[in-house]
Amino acid sequence: MKPIFSHTEGMITDPMHYCPGCTHGIIHRLVGETLIELGIRERAVGVSPVGCSVFTYKYFTCDMFQASHGRAPAVATGAKRCRPELIVFCYQGDGDLAAIGTSEIIHAANRGEKITCIFVNNAIYGMTGGQMAPTTVPGQRTSTTPGGRNVDEDGFPLKMSEILAQLQTPGYIARVSMHSPEEIIRAKRVIRKAFEYQVNNTCFSFVEFLSTCPTNWGLSPVDSLNWIKNSMLPYYPLGEHKVPEQKEEGTQ
Length: 252
Prior knowledge:
The protein is α/β, with parallel strands linked by helices. 35% of the residues lie in helices and 16% in strands. Helix 7 links the parallel strand 5 and strand 6.
């Protein structure tokens, strides 16, 4: 009988450090599978940040850099410009990318760096105690907003996909979710597409994943999936927010 599921060579087999119900592991697998399926693992280089995914470099079977907090796009830019033949990707959380690293991601996208950014949005600071993040939705309770995020005092959450999609520079910007098997299958297609744009030297690519944080949300793994669907999706709509224009044959 042909197996319907097997371990991907894009990842090691050691257990991960993530909390039960966290969907970081699923996102890791989607990236690892894509590196193998596209035949790019041997020339892929990932950049891991500070945050829950700080140990990303332990799980992928490609080369990895460790970047300072928020600086993954800057490190990825240096690697890609020095070695354009490499396939370079960042793997960042919302506290890392949308707070201390806001300038790095915006300017990397605006320059049109030919890198791929994986952005994991769980609407909270997961590693440091569940504080309000730039992506915490209105009314959401965190350790620093026990009464819920008050937009009059704290401002509105940053919609990074929409922000980057407004830049004039061509790019591929999409948002997917981890709350159901159907959406995970869609996410796999999107992440493959993002890497293909880099393989073809087309443009900057960015995929935002709506992800769970059962520990800091104070919810069970199952309830966390429902919370994405009921509380995050209304504020963070899924889909491709920007797709590069297709050049006509014979044009430069």
